[in-house]
């Protein structure tokens, strides 16, 4: 195993989440849209942060192959949560912008990055994902 991290939460969506090394601790709160106070963070926000960073790294790793400047890439991940027939389900949209780059090259790069990004791989065939080049 190259790397492992551990987080512990007490109190669920209205509790506190901390990393084992003490480097980050966050107050958690159910979003206002779901009936909560919204005065804290929620798992969907944290998932969006992690996925956007991870996807950005996949862009960097593959950008030379596609002939674009990966350093100029801006990756935005939106995570949605809604009721489904079982309970709740996530959805995602990944938007990538690389100013000045050829759109077809960026589209190919985004598809390629979606194949290798660990977050994309972990959610494949389970979370609907919309890829958008802006």
TrEMBL record:
Organism: Rhodoplanes serenus
Domain of life the protein comes from: Bacteria
Cited SUPFAM superfamilies: OsmC-like
GO biological process assignments: response to oxidative stress
Pfam families recorded: OsmC
InterPro entries: KH_dom-like_a/b, OHR, OsmC/Ohr_fam, OsmC/Ohrsf
Family membership: Belongs to the OsmC/Ohr family.
Protein name, UniProt field: Ohr family peroxiredoxin
């Amino acid at each position: 195993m190259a790397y492992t991290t551990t987080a512990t939460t007490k109190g669920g969506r209205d509790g506190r989440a901390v990393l084992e090394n003490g480097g980050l601790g966050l107050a958690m709160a159910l979003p206002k849209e779901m009936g909560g106070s919204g005065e804290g963070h929620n798992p969907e926000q944290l998932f969006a942060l992690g996925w956007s960073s991870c996807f950005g790294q996949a862009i960097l790793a593959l950008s030379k192959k596609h002939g674009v400047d990966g350093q100029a890439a801006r990756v935005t991940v939106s995570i949605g949560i809604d009721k489904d027939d079982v309970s709740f389900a996530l959805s995602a949209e990944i938007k990538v912008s690389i100013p000045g780059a050829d759109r077809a090259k960026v589209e190919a790069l985004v598809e390629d990055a979606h194949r290798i990004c660990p977050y994309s791989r972990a959610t494949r065939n389970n979370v609907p994902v919309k890829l958008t080049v802006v």
